[in-house]
Each structure stands twice: as C-alpha cells, then as structure tokens.
Design brief:
With 235 residues, the protein is α/β, with parallel strands linked by helices. It contains seven helices and ten strands. The strands form two sheets. Strands 1, 2, 3, 4, 5, 6 and 7 form a seven-stranded mixed β-sheet that branches. It has a three-stranded antiparallel β-sheet with strand order 8-9-10, with no helix packed on it. The protein is globular and about 65 Å long.
Length: 235
C-alpha cells in the first residue's frame, strides 16, 4: 500500500508539472462595472487568473454628449483597423500569454461593436492567442453581440473559439451565475486542468476515491475536486 501511495503522488506531481500551461486567463475591461461583476461571478465557478485592461488616460466619460468620445474612438479604429495608432492607449501589460491554454474575453458592447479599450488589447496581443481556446462573454444594454464577435475574430483570427458565445444584457444580468454555469456546460469547459485521471494501479486499489494530493478518501467530499474510479469529479 505504501508503494502504491508513493506512486500515486509521483504521478500526480508529474501531471501537475506537465500541465502548468493548461490554465485559464480571464481578460476583461469594465466601464460601468457590469463586466467586473460578470468576472467576479465567473471566477467563483472556475479556476483562473484575471487580467483587467485599463485605459492609459483615466477619467474619460465615453458616454458624454451622446457617446461622442466613444463613437470617435470606434470611428478611428474602423477607418484604419490595421494601424496601431488608431487604437486608444492602454496601461502596460505584463501577463505572459504563453502560460495559458484558454483565454476568456469579457467585454462591453459599444454601439454594436467591441469596446475600443478591449480592441486595443486584442490588436496588440491577439496574434499570441493563435491556437488557444477562446471564449467570449459580452455585456450590453440590449443590443445583440454579432458585431462584437466579428471584432474579436478579426483581432484574433487564429483562435480556437468555443462553440458558443455568452451574451449577458442588463435584463438578465442578475441571473449571470446561472447563465455562466449553463454556458460553461454548453461549451464543455473543463474546470480541471491539472489532472485528468490517476494511473491504472491507483484505480485498482479500494476505496477508489482520491484527493488531488493522492490521499485515499473514505467517502466522497461534499465540495471540491477529487478522483473516483479514475475519473475527475467536481462538486
């Protein structure tokens, strides 16, 4: 039994060390706080690292005078979408995208388009997201999100997009926890990236229930992540 336990721990450590890159990064920009609330709810349901994008110039009122400034920023991007100078400046980013396998983008909608601040981030770093799993969550007052989806795919053309995007508008924002949970299920999002299954010798040894530390459990825990009969279980 002692040898079996040691082999389980060694196998777990090996899996953990080889899947460091299989993490999720949640990138968001929030102007009215709706996206920040969405990210807070999302991060309570999955294991992730959160990166907030901030404009370099603070205190701007994008909605003032009939959204004049916001419209001006979007028009500049639309006029020259391949020119870096068309995009508003953002604070420096130090997050290394190579550390992540999945990236979930949470952004507001501005006049049927992706918020200009988030477009800047994706213009600068979208090329580094090639081949990564890309999820998109859009917050808006009422408008549909097709324009935001188009912006995202223009800026991250080689992303491996999940089968569905999530639209959370102001009328269903209060139900965001359920909407996010249903979306994660619909796209088959896997919250466990550090371990898939235990080796066969561990599965053959009763009681068939193990914690992520390799310790055998006498019964299923009420909450947490564990392995039962070689399969990962999340409660």
């Amino acid at each position: 039994m002692k040898k079996s336990f040691i082999s389980i721990v060694v196998s777990l450590l090996a899996l953990l060390s080889t899947k460091v890159s299989a993490q999720t990064l949640v990138v968001y920009y929030s102007y009215t706080n709706y996206c920040r609330e969405i990210v807070t709810t999302l991060s309570s349901q999955i294991e992730c690292v959160v990166l907030e994008i901030q404009p370099a110039e603070k205190g701007l009122k994008y909605e003032a005078n009939g959204y004049a400034l916001g419209t001006q920023l979007l028009n500049a991007i639309n006029a020259n979408p391949n020119d870096a100078s068309s995009y508003p400046a953002i604070d420096p980013i130090t997050t290394t995208l190579s550390d992540y396998e999945t990236i979930i983008i949470v952004t507001p909608l501005w006049w049927s388009q992706m918020a200009a601040i988030m477009q800047t981030y994706l213009f600068n770093y979208g090329g580094q997201m090639a081949g990564k799993h890309i999820g998109l969550i859009v917050s808006s007052a009422s408008s549909g999100i097709s324009g935001v989806v188009a912006d995202c795919k223009r800026l991250v053309p080689e992303g491996n997009y999940f089968s569905e995007n999530l639209w959370i508008n102001h009328s269903n924002h209060s139900r965001r926890a359920t909407l996010i949970q249903n979306w994660l299920t619909a796209i088959n999002y896997n919250t466990v990236t550090a371990i898939d299954e235990l080796p066969a010798d561990a599965q053959a040894t009763p009681p068939h229930i193990y914690g992520l530390d390799g310790r055998q459990l006498e019964q299923e825990p009420q909450k947490g992540i564990y392995i039962k009969n070689g399969k990962k279980i999340v409660r």
